[in-house]
Protein 1
Amino acid sequence: WMLCPDFSTFCSFSSLFAISVVGPHQPVVALVDDDVILPCHVEPAEDVTAEILEWTRSDMNPRFVHVWRSGQDLVNTRNPSYRGRASLFINELKRGNISLKLSKVKLSDEGTYECSIPLMEKKSFVKLVVASHAARSLLISLSGSGENRGGVVLQCESAGWYPEPELLWLDGEGNLLSAGPAETLRGPDDLYTVSSRKNNALTESQVVGPHQPVVALVDDDVILPCHVEPAEDVTAEILEWTRSDLNPRFVHVWRSGQDLVNTRNPSYRGRASLFINELKRGNISLKLSKVKLSDEGTYECSIPLMEKKSFVKLVVGIDKNRGGVVLQCESAGWYPEPELLWLDGEGNLLSAGPTETLRGPDDLYTVSSRVTVEKRHSNNITCRVQQKKISQNRETHIHVPGSNYIIAFMIETLFEHMKSRFLKNLRRTIPHTDTNLHPNNGTRGDKSRDILYTHMCHVCLQQRTSDVCVSMSM
């Protein structure tokens, strides 16, 4: 070592050989057309303004990205692709910061850069990864149900990516969904296109209608309930209300976000409508205005692409009387003798006339009762027939509008071809001395004979001029 009088030369050389050139430990990622900084600095920090500083890429010719010498940029030495785009932070050189700024990044800028101080033989490397901006295209298409009954195939495709991206499917809560393998294509511009298909099964969704007939009066408005379970937005679906006994069969059709008025049966034009704001909640109920007698029938509520449907039975009556609504409930085929109750929509007992009880030649009981429903009562009425002794009961419900006509309920049990089987099974459990089943017989409490059969329910709407009966399974 050469020692100067004030030891400055010795100290200067000593500090130069003690420093390091430091770059980032991780690759730097930049987007096309953005600006990026490739970090590089001297440790410990010291002024490098007077040093020769070079940024190079070994895979290029010429290899120079940026050169600083004698206090200025050597523009003519750099690779043409970087001219006007590479620069240092001049004011930061005195602090040892020799980071490089690249403007308007290109895909070709991706690579490994060397940041060096040649006279010190100190250098570091910076890897730059260049990506495209969020894809130039992102498309999710519906392939249709095809052979996947009850479901649709979704395809997602996105182009213009770099480097190679990952494609994921998520549900509404952000959870990953299983899907087929992603297909990746790299184009002549080195950008990637990815695509994936997802079988979106809709088999869990159901179209649900009411369990009981809907009753309406002539000239009133009525709602035929129908909804999707679990609730989901059906605004974009094809929705159809039809009646198979009509030609054309369409009552109402919703497609491509609008009503198809011209397709519907002329008798329903201007009278059938959906609740548009409720479609997003899965409510596809139909409103019929100014009900006609000819509106009575069975309606099909369906989503054709999902192959899901439900049926709604509409019973139409005529307002004739001025009093309350009279309901009659009758139930046959009971043993032992049952109890008949009327309940309102809140489960409260309704005051009704005395129950009539008949015991037939087959020793089975038939009970019937009538109740007048006043306006103060709930419109959802229940007729319940029960046997407290063996905790058996049957009940049926009906929704009655605030109207004036007579409705009769009949819970009818035991088909003719079932009677012989019932009696045969019953007698097998009863001693021969008790086959007549007299009311005062002491063995009446034998639980082995406490047998209940109920099979069918008929709802009859009684008008002044005619009876209209509707059958439905219990």
Note: The chain has four domains: 17-131, 137-201, 206-317, 325-473.
Protein 2
Amino acid sequence: ASVGPTHNFAVLPEQERFLSYLPLSHVAGLMVDMCCPMALTAKLPCWCTAYFARPYDLKMGAIKDRLCAARPTAFLGVPLVWEKIADKLRAIGAANSGLKQSIASWAKDLGLTQAKSSLLGGDGYTPVGFTLAETLILSKVKGALGMDQLKYAATGAAPIRVDTLEYFGSLGLSINEVYGMSESCGGATLSTQSAHLWGSCGFPVDGVEVKVFKVDATDINKKTECPRTPSLDDNHEDYQGEICFRGRQIMMGYLAQPDFGPEHVKSIEKKTAEAIDAEGWMHSGDKGMMTASGMLKITGRFKELIIGDGGENIAPVPIEDHIKASCDGINEVMMVGDKRKYNVALITLKAVGANGEVPGTDDLDAGAKRVNPDVTTISAALDDKVWIEAVTKAVTSANNNGKICPNNAFKVQKFMILPTNFSEEQGSLTPTKKLKRPIVEKAFIKQVEQMYASKETYVRYQA
């Protein structure tokens, strides 16, 4: 209901198509791939078809083939999927030269201008030449991706970098951020084509209350609503707090199994009491803020916050995202520094086969191959001056950005490039490809201690 009127989605007597590739045991896969097609077909003039990807498509990098076969009109991609697609497109673009590259750059520049003017508060200006660029170039790129019929593209389940949204915007694809959790039956906020800003998860869906509270550390019933920020760029701590939901879609509580005994039941009841307060607010554990217009922005997760040596609350994701955006060869960044004197970072590089499910090979892939064309493997990059300088420059860029690193406590002082990538297979990523930070830190605790013991900014990996 929220999406249809602004996307011409599900409101006409025609087929709408979904591609299912996420685990159906996860709320995103269940709601988008199963519940939405049934509900839309039952309630609206359209009829829906769900196409199911092969279980190994994500692992084998064959999602594009399924997209081309299904031509979905609605598609939810977790950030890793969108970023992998962008990496492949950038690699293809970098291989072009001369006139072909100039034409592609011309089309993408017009696409980005049009996308920015379509953001909430923009003037809606369509630049001269955009229609021609869309017809000759951008539509063909979308067709090659299987996304030429897409009416609503969304991302959720994990944070996505703004530069990824900008890249797809330059191709004429508007990716809308959605936000929710299993306990809220999926989406609680969403962005639409007519009301979206890069970096925001949009407005609450009908029937859902969303507020941001300063919550007492010992009693969730003691809370004060945060004032609303005048803009997404104003990240003052006064505006930030815990994101909470309330509505009929909120769970009644976590389900206990009485056969496990009274102690088990009590522990589950305690967990429920720690999640839902006396007024019915579901506490998400996510840190964020709301703008004066009611748009939600997530700034971190309380469990992920790094407590600096001086008591600072450091949200690692914005810093990590800046580092990744500053060097196209970097795949993942994980900061470590909780209750330590300063922060360090574990960094992985883009590699062939590293798709989130498996760690991939030692061979560099996508943007990583362009950092230094003479270096083709991760193991060689560990000792390469060009690579070390490129990553150092990306870390320095983040450290010098006053919005994400307001003082020295937020800065990354040392880093290490790992010889492998994080993956679900190794237990370091969730099924929706979110980083399991405690598990990663434990797995590489020896390397973390090596960084703190070293005097160098770049600390070479040692097993």
Note: The two ends are 54 Å apart (CA to CA).
Protein 3
Amino acid sequence: MATEFKLPEVGENIEKATVIRVLVNEGDTVKKEQTLVEIETDKATIEVPSTVTGKVGKIKVKEGESVPVGATLMTIAEEGEAGESRPARAEKAPKEEPPVSRKQEARRAEEQRETAAAEEAPEPEEDSRERKAAPRREARVEQLTPAARKAPPAPGQTVPASPSVRRLAREIGVDISEVEGTGPGGRISEDDVKAHARRQAGGAPRPARAAARPAVSVSADLPDFSRWGEIEAEPLNNIRRVISERLSLSWQTIPHVHHHDKADITELEELRRRRNAAIDDPARKLTVTAVLLKVLGKLLRRHPKFNASLDAANNQLILKHYCHIGVAADTERGLLVPVVRDVDRKSISELVADLHALAGRAREGKLSPEEMSGGTFTVSNLGGIGGVGFTPIINLPEVAILGVSRAAYEQVFDREGNGRVRLLLPVCLGYDHRVIDGAEAARFVREMCELLTSPFDMLFEI
């Protein structure tokens, strides 16, 4: 029989992917675990291997095509078999699926309960009436008052929203029961959640459903640029699209404040160069980013607000007792933020190894969605490229981010007027002013700078 090779589940909350490359042709013989296609999700590029050994039959997708999870990519006739197609064996063999943690199992169970509740809930009365009396829809919408369009759900009533939409609402601190649904029967979409978050942050009144608009990517009409010369339209890839949406939402909902300072890293840089001179393996060389992670692990424990998330819907601050720091990485496909786990519990050597491994997978496009989720704080270090400073945008649902620029030698004067040339590192802390006060941010940055200035004292402090 021919096996239907389907797009497997590649990560939590990922429902579709774009086919980047098809690496086989019809009639090719393939082996089990051989990569057949490369796909791109909202977060990463992933190689999808074959689950069987056999000959490729019909290829049903093209490069650049967007396909949902579970769609058939191609058929494969297993060795010594022929006939009708059957589902891929991988779907019936749970042992071939990647191991699932208890936390992931709990999340999936929650999603299944929410989905089942949504499917069992009675069809919204408004939706059934609209299908029966479609010609009168416009008149009916005009007669409804804002209160009638979105009444609060009755006790026990299920809010019409998918598990992925509910998760987005939780991440950005939105009460899903208060969101205005613009879909059929009041169903809530991701755009509805984002629009509600913008109104919640700005204190704007809730608009009528008929006037609802997308929360992100609202832009002015562009002129016809071809009037002045030759142009080329380049579609945004999935990663760039998600970056655009998430950063727009962050900038529109979070009252950003940026605190600038400079750290004297003269002694630290001398220590780093001496250490690296005796090491041949690039994976073990000490970097400024690794030192920053070690320092931040200590400071985030000391200042838990900077390691938190704001739950605005329930008027509470979620304080996290773990420290996972995302490190922005520049790649050919766009900005990726792999997450280093348990920074506060690891040695400087372990942090160096983790950073090197994650950076390599980011450049190769092999980061998994799990490796880019769960961050509590973010570091963006542009020192290797240049610049004297920049103001980073906070990565929702975090409340702070550290931007680092290139260190430069400057003359520094003491109180007696004596000048010395020192190596100064420009840093900028971006923070959510709803959660963090200016004085708290200044103390956080100053403590960080003092630790970086005295590497010998830092060893005992950390």
Note: DSSP finds 13 helices and 20 strands in the chain.
